[in-house]
């Protein structure tokens, strides 16, 4: 290891000559900067991290589409009920809250079970983590917030459609 403020490639010839002068049997094959050496040594873990992040984003997207699909189906099945509620005086806000509450309650149960499972798996995962504690409070707080926001958005879209239902058309449909 040699510290320099200049380009390591410019110093390579001098370094090889100096090492050969001390011990000709020691080869100096590749001179490179420490940043380059570190970047090469963490390239595989970075690739694995990028792949895991991509799969996590895909899983989040699939979860959001699943929540949207379930809530949209439930809204379609309850169109008559929503029409009756609106005919009896329920406001748009009441319908929005009812549908979003349904989506968030299902998602909340899933998030709670996921937190329990991840907390139970912390011992097994502790050897795979670097620079992060297995029970990192920020992670255990941020993940439910992100998942809750995704569930809120996925529930809000069908809720908005349910709130636009014309009570007369919904009641006439049955």
Task: Classify the helix fraction into a percent range.
Answer: over 70%
| Tally of DSSP β-strands | 0
Query: Which value, in Å, is the CA radius of gyration?
Result: 29 Å
Name the poorly predicted regions. Answer: none
What's the total helix number? 8
Structural class determined from secondary elements = mainly alpha
The biggest beta sheet, please?
none
Q: Into which percentage range does the β-strand content fall?
A: under 5%
Architecture overview:
The longest helix has 35 residues, at 43-77. The mean pLDDT is 87. The protein folds into 2 domains: 8-38, no CATH class; 53-172, no CATH class. The protein is mainly alpha-helical and 174 residues long. The termini are far apart. It is built from 8 helices and no strands.
Structure characteristics:
about 170 residues, mainly alpha, 8 helices, about 75% helix, rod-shaped
What is this entry, summarized?
With 174 residues, the chain is mainly alpha-helical. The chain contains eight helices and no strands.
